[in-house]
């Protein structure tokens, strides 16, 4: 990131870290026409990414949609004034047409990522793919090869890389304020009711129907750690189980009462008492959390060792009060930081023994923190601005480029697969040997 300051002497910080890291990025001029986008999958994530075009309509416009659920398809078509001829029930219908847009957002279910991504890459669409890239290593390899062969702009929805909070953490590390990074401790508190909804009753409850929970929930987190630590990961180990959400823990007094709280928009597309009641009675979201067919781990720890000798540990835990409010501590040779994941970073300078409370959104000038702490908006902006730079040679956007490209994503996904392999085999995994096992060139 070009605006990160450089220091000739990183042993003293005579000026406040806030002043040294404050960004004064110029907003680039918009392109001569909006960059056109097709949406494949108009569910929660696809709709969220499409909404960017409402915020910055001078930069992007939704011109096509493919979605099998009629209500979602029609809602997006109406909201974005999409012509009837560009409204499809399936992406296979869309891909048969001449190229409809500059870019495509692929936000299908996890297990349906590979085929459309490869097809749209082969047709030279620039692609934003919702995470995870794929649920198998072979799937990740196919996508990576297609993107590299076709030389398209590509980003994965690792939105945590783009939040003001995590951008500032990266800036502090790269600027040398912490010295050499020695250890990172990171926790992802999923939230008991969020886990029960999504990973016990919902789409990500069974590995054979989706993927293991470390991938579906925490590929974000392992990606973030690898982003912060520029040294390559060389070893990983992991432990975890499905401990609580099973029949042996069902209370005697538990009945068949059904909860009608968040997120009803996932339970039913039409949010009223009749449709909600019907969905809870007949669909998966009304089941008792102790009597479901879930099998993914509800707690897991991952240990990482890097080539420079530094280490990291990541904990995913379902049974928490807070929901996805990640907490991180990073320990360096010259200082440490403690982060709440969204709003604040406490920086401690070992040399001066002084502490500073940093507020990332204020320092970096972010005004919208909706959608993963501002990550959704910032990712879309980076994706669209990068296309603008490619198509129209736009300037002043160097600090807004994609950081979750195909190679970065492939590497961090590989660490997730290796960690899960460790959990299932009880062995410490050497990353180089793991790559060789899967025929992956370093």
From TrEMBL:
GO terms for molecular function: nucleotide binding. Signal peptide: none annotated. Coiled coil: none annotated. Residues 170-338 form the Gfo/Idh/MocA-like oxidoreductase C-terminal domain. Gene3D superfamilies: Dihydrodipicolinate Reductase, domain 2, NAD(P)-binding Rossmann-like Domain. Residues 36-158 form the Gfo/Idh/MocA-like oxidoreductase N-terminal domain. PANTHER family: BILIVERDIN REDUCTASE A, BINDING ROSSMANN FOLD OXIDOREDUCTASE, PUTATIVE (AFU_ORTHOLOGUE AFUA_4G00560)-RELATED. This is Oxidoreductase domain-containing protein.
């Amino acid at each position: 990131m070009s605006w990160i300051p450089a220091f000739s002497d990183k042993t003293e910080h005579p000026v406040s870290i806030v002043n040294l890291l404050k960004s004064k990025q110029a907003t680039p001029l918009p392109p001569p026409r909006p960059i056109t986008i097709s949406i494949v999958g108009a569910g929660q994530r696809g709709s969220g990414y499409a909404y960017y075009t409402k915020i910055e309509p001078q930069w992007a416009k939704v011109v096509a949609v493919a979605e099998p659920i009629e209500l979602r398809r029609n809602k997006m078509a109406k909201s974005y004034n999409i012509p009837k001829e560009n409204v499809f029930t399936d992406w296979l219908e869309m891909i048969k047409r001449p190229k409809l847009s500059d870019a495509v957002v692929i936000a299908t279910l996890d297990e349906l990522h590979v085929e459309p991504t490869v097809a749209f890459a082969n047709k030279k669409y620039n692609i934003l793919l919702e995470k995870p890239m794929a649920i198998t290593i072979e799937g990740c390899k196919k996508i990576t090869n297609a993107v590299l062969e076709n030389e398209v702009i590509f980003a994965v929805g690792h939105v945590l890389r783009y939040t003001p909070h995590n951008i500032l953490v990266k800036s502090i590390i790269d600027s040398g304020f912490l010295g050499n990074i020695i250890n990172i401790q990171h926790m992802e508190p999923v939230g008991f009711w969020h886990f029960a909804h999504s990973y016990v009753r919902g789409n990500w409850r069974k590995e054979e129907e989706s993927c293991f929970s470390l991938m579906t929930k925490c590929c974000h987190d392992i990606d973030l750690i690898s982003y912060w630590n520029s040294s390559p990961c060389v070893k990983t180990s992991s432990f975890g189980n499905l401990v609580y959400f099973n029949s042996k823990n069902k209370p005697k007094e538990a009945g068949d009462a059904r909860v009608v709280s968040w997120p009803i928009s996932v339970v039913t597309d039409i949010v009223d008492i009749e449709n909600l009641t019907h969905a809870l009675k007949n669909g998966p979201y009304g089941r008792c959390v102790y009597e479901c067919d879930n099998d993914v781990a509800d707690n897991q720890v991952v240990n990482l060792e890097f080539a420079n000798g530094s280490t990291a540990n990541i904990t995913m835990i379902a049974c928490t009060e807070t929901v996805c409010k990640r907490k991180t501590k990073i320990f360096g040779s010259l200082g440490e930081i403690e982060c709440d994941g969204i709003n604040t970073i406490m920086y401690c300078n070992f040399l001066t023994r002084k502490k500073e409370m940093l507020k990332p959104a204020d320092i970096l000038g972010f005004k919208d923190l909706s959608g993963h702490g501002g990550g959704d908006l910032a990712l879309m902006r980076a994706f669209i601005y990068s296309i603008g730079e490619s198509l129209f040679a736009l300037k002043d956007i160097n600090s807004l480029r994609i950081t979750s490209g195909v190679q970065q994503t492939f590497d961090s996904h590989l660490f997730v697969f290796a960690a899960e392999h460790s959990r299932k085999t009880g062995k410490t995994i050497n990353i180089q040997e793991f790559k060789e096992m899967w025929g992956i060139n370093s």
